[in-house]
Amino acid sequence: MKIPTDFAAFFKQAHFSELTPIQAQVYQPFLDQQSFLALAPTGSGKTLAFGMPLIQQVEAGQGIQKLILEPSQELAIQTRDVLRQLAPQLSIYAVIGGANLKRQIAQLKTKPEIVVGTLGRVSDLVQQRKLKLNRVTGVVIDEADELLSEKMDPIRALISRLDRKVQLNFFSATSAAIFSQLSQYFGREIGQFDLRGDQEFRAGLKHYFLAVPNKKKVELLQRLAHRKQKRTLVFCQSSKQLHQLAADLRYRKLYYMVLDTSDPKRRREEALRSLRQHQTSLLLTTDVAARGMDIPDLTTVINWENPQTATAYTHRSGRTGRMGRAGEVITLGNQHDYRQLQTLLRPQAITVKWAQLQAGKLQAVAKFPQKKGAPVKSQSSTKNKSRRSPKK
């Protein structure tokens, strides 16, 4: 399928020469107002996959016709910005928690054609009758595995307010048990497009494992962060672990930013802006805070410990190597952690190579670099024993 004429200029400016498989596969069914679930790898262009046909269904000046639900404030803003580039002639607004409510209500009074939002704020505005959905013809639920698994009841309550013929489209990089019951939950036929096996746009992604004891992790991270032309996202298991790592890096006077859901919205925006604008090359985060984020030219993802699920690994690794670009995923741990990771990723057919950092370069090695007598107890099951920053 050729790039739709309406979006040729956007694709040229973004240096995209063709549609990705998911974009080509769902374009016509979406235009034909079919309800479906679309599964595709991270970084395969799902936002454009629903954005292009959705925009072509919209009539300018006819009020709110499309609603897009995102799991986080940052993702809602990101999606809004992409759609605005695709359709500068339309009014597209984001309604999210943590933002000025009066300003959002004022924006809604201008009758935008498309609203992107988080479920909590959207539901609140609907209850207050400030967000009117009587003209809505389609709803997109992005990152559907997360949203439906955690918020199925309020989503169904919201959908129940709409016309029974409203088009429903769900997009996700990973599956969820609840997907098998979509038709039952929403009272209509929900088709499915599963392109997760198409890894064409993940070909540039390499997976490495670096052997390192807990007490040496911060030092190794410092060396990894000092590599030239590298922009790095470090995933921690929890907010507590994230801020402990931040304290250790602060002690070593290494510049970094933190992206944590517990931080104020303004601070999270500043952290993302700093990485996107190359003001920092190191961002510390968690699974919840960074899920779905598109950070252009991100070269490296580091797992401070093994992720707890294969789904978490998929979403973490999906922050780099997007749309066929080169990227690297580095997991830190010992030999036992490596075996655990291999077991975790075996169903996904992901090969993780042992590696060493030599002269500032990451090099794959054939044998696990372990000293004689070194312990092999999993680091993922023990508490982080990193040094604490001295009190000021």
Task: Tell me what you see in this structure.
The protein has 392 residues and is an alpha/beta fold. It folds into two domains: 5-194, Rossmann fold (3-Layer(aba) Sandwich), CATH 3.40.50.300; 203-364, P-loop containing nucleotide triphosphate hydrolases (Rossmann fold). 35% of the residues lie in helices and 19% in strands. It has helices at residues 8-13, 21-31, 46-57, 73-86, 101-108, 119-127, 144-159, 182-186, 217-225, 239-251, 265-276, 287-290, 310-317, 335-345; strands at residues 36-39, 66-70, 92-95, 114-118, 138-141, 167-172, 191-194, 205-211, 232-236, 257-259, 282-286, 300-303, 327-333, 353-358, 361-364. An eight-stranded mixed β-sheet has the order 10-11-9-12-13-8-14-15. Helix 7 (144-159) links the parallel strand 5 (138-141) and strand 6. Helix 2 packs parallel to helix 3 (46-57) and helix 3 (46-57) packs across helix 4 (73-86). Mean pLDDT is 90; it is low at 381-392.
What's the short story on this structure?
The chain is an alpha/beta fold and 392 residues long. It is 35% helix and 19% strand. The protein is globular and about 60 Å long.
Lay out the secondary structure.
Layout: H1 8-13, H2 21-31, E1 36-39, H3 46-57, E2 66-70, H4 73-86, E3 92-95, H5 101-108, E4 114-118, H6 119-127, E5 138-141, H7 144-159, E6 167-172, H8 182-186, E7 191-194, E8 205-211, H9 217-225, E9 232-236, H10 239-251, E10 257-259, H11 265-276, E11 282-286, H12 287-290, E12 300-303, H13 310-317, E13 327-333, H14 335-345, E14 353-358, E15 361-364
Parallel strand pairs: 1-6, 1-7, 2-4, 2-5, 3-4, 5-6, 8-13, 8-14, 9-11, 9-12, 10-11, 12-13
Antiparallel strand pairs: 14-15
Protein name: DEAD/DEAH box helicase
Keywords: ATP-binding, Helicase, Hydrolase, Nucleotide-binding
GO molecular function: ATP binding; hydrolase activity; nucleic acid binding; RNA helicase activity
